[in-house]
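Risk mitigation, structural track. In case the binding assays with sulfoquinovose-uridine-C1,5'-diphosphate fail to produce interpretable data, a predicted complex structure has been prepared as a fallback.
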Amino acid sequence: MKVLIAGVDGYSGWPLALHLLQRGHTVVGVDNLVTRRRVAEVGSWSATPILSMPLRQKAIRDLWKKDLRFYRADLGDFAELRRILRREKPDAVVHLAEQRSAPYSMIDVHHAVETQCQNITSTLHLLYAMKEETPESHLVKMGTMGEYGTPNVDIPEGFFEIEYMGRRDRLPFPRQASSWYHWSKVFDTGDVMLANKLWGLRATDVMQGVIYGTRSPDIPDDRFLTRFDFDEVWGTALNRFCVQAILGLPITPYGKGGQRRGFIALEDSIQSLRLAVENPPAPGEYRVFNQFDEAYSVGDLAQMVVRVAGRLGIPAEVQASYNPRVEMEEHYYNPHHENLLQLGYRHMRTLEESMEWILQDLQRFRSRLEAKKHVVLPRMDFRDPDNRGRLHIGERRARAGAKRPGRTFRKRRK
Ligand code: USQ
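Fallback model:
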């Protein structure tokens, strides 16, 4: 099969490309490399040293004698995207090329607009480009479990049966996202469903939980490492807790720590995307996968990091932290996730097993973490009407030598 991965330079895109190549597929990558720039913008970098795309391609050629064709292109450029699809004619397109951070989208109006415009535009461009150039191909679209929010009932896989005023129907399950980023994914879902209805475009919408891990079996040595973010904006809670343990900083579950999320290991996430690609839906079908294995609260997660770090001889402690996000800190959470199992999906790695590897790998790159220690502890506040999230913009201006100083910040409101 020929698979085009949009977002091939990202955390999941890169190891997915490696995995598909190893499975004998032809892989074409597209990326505008913006994640590298955006992480630098908040003064951070990947904990794992990652190669440039030309060096990544060379490593693949040297070790496996295979080719990863790469286009440095932006999905915001419709004409270019169409040209790539016309030339490559992929059987499947995996769309991972979106701004993926909730905190980034909450910094201020500009970051909210940037996130929503870019994410929704990239998806719409892709839908139209596929309709024009590859109408038979299959779209695998990365959505997020966060689209559903945290309702006080079970969460089905995309759709549910409902009876209302004596009539029954099968409807999309309500979406209640809690960041501008998560809402951009909700809008994408609506757009993919409409493209499916209008043109019969076949699509798999993957509602992804939090992905974790530094390793996959397709990463044979350090030249093939994927990125691992740990700053307040780009690092997930799990990544940040592990880095906090390594650096001897307090582990910071926000608020009551009862916020529950679904988690999936990097290699399992890749396995599920590969299964989606290799088992496309019927022409005209739209399907939804909830993609996660284990659910934990952030409080449980913090305790797990302390436990696993302890086994490795790393002392770590948890310190309840002010919650800068507007979210429920205690809630019911029971999403269903059976659709992937029906395709043969098997959960390979538990979170606790992977955590040991994450901590060991981070210890190897400790000096990279030390160099960016200042970006680990939380500083932003999305509940403050004056929004401390602007902090990073102030820093950027200061670094660029702009005359206007960065903001100073009020004390946190109690
Ligand atoms: N949290 C803490 N302490 C921290 C950082 C975060 O307690 O230091 C809490 C947050 O308040 C939140 C939870 O951890 O309740 C999860 O936050 P996160 O930053 O780990 O993840 P999230 O913002 O939900 O986004 C991540 C990915 C996103 C993906 C999503 C899947 O960045 O791309 O879509 O996970 S899900 O969470 O299922 O929506």
